[in-house]
Amino acid sequence: MIFAQFARFALVLALLAGAVGCGGGNSQEMELGGINTGDMLDGLLARTMRALNSVNSMETAQAAVPVLDAINDDFDDLIYHVPKLSENGRAEMAAKAKKSLPQIQDMAARINDMPGLSGVLGPSMNAMVEKITLLL
Length: 136
Prior knowledge:
Blueprint: H1 2-17, E1 31-32, E2 35-36, H2 37-53, H3 58-81, H4 87-112, H5 115-134
Helix pairs in contact: 1-2, 1-4, 2-3, 2-4, 3-5, 4-5
C-alpha cells in the first residue's frame, strides 16, 4: 500500500516538474542589489522539486523535511525583500508567483491526500503554499 503511494507520488512529481520553476526571462525590474528575485523564486521552486523527487520511502520523506524547511526559510527572505522592488518588479514577482502557485498547491493537496506522507511532508508543503501566496 505505502509503495503504491510513493509510486503515485513519483508519477505526479514527474508530471508537475515541467510546469514548476520554468525560469528564464526575468527582467531587471526584479533585481535588487545585484540579485534577481525572479531567479531566486525559480531556484526555490527547483530546489523544492529536487527535494520531493528524492522521496521514495518514509525515510526519504523524513529526510526531505529539513530541506523543505530550509527552502521555506529562504522564501521568508524573498518575501522580506520583494517590497523593496519597484512597482513593476513587484508586479512581475506576483505574476511569477501566481503562475507557480497552482502546481505547488496541487503537490501539497496530493501529499495531504496520502496518509503516509501527509503527516511528514504536509506541514512543510502547506507552509510553502502560504508563503507563495504572500508573493501575490
